[in-house]
Design brief:
The chain is an alpha+beta fold. It has a domain at 10-75. It contains two helices and three strands. It has a three-stranded antiparallel beta sheet. A hairpin with an 8-residue loop joins strand 2 and strand 3. The radius of gyration is 17 Å and the shape is globular. InterPro entries: DUF397. It comes from Streptomyces melanosporofaciens. This is DUF397 domain-containing protein.
Length: 99
Amino acid sequence: MDQVHVYNGMPAKHLGTEGWAKPWSGPNGGACVEALRLHDGRVALRQSTDPDGPALIYTHHEIERFIQGAKAGAADFLLTRPDPNLTSSAGTAPERRAA
């Protein structure tokens, strides 16, 4: 990769096609997060179903803290399914379906 100005939200295609990995792939039909370790130690993440879409760029420290936190259970709340009958700014799930 030539000298590319790397920034958060940049098109992932500008980071090239080589080196992207799917460390969190599962039985989800191929839709997963892909990661690329950049030369300066930062990590780029992109959605596998939109490889030309935006890349989120994280420092080594940010990725390290995220992985440590996830291993310690700090992200377990992301695994719970929301109650479909709870009210959001758009109303309850049945109200949204009726609209």
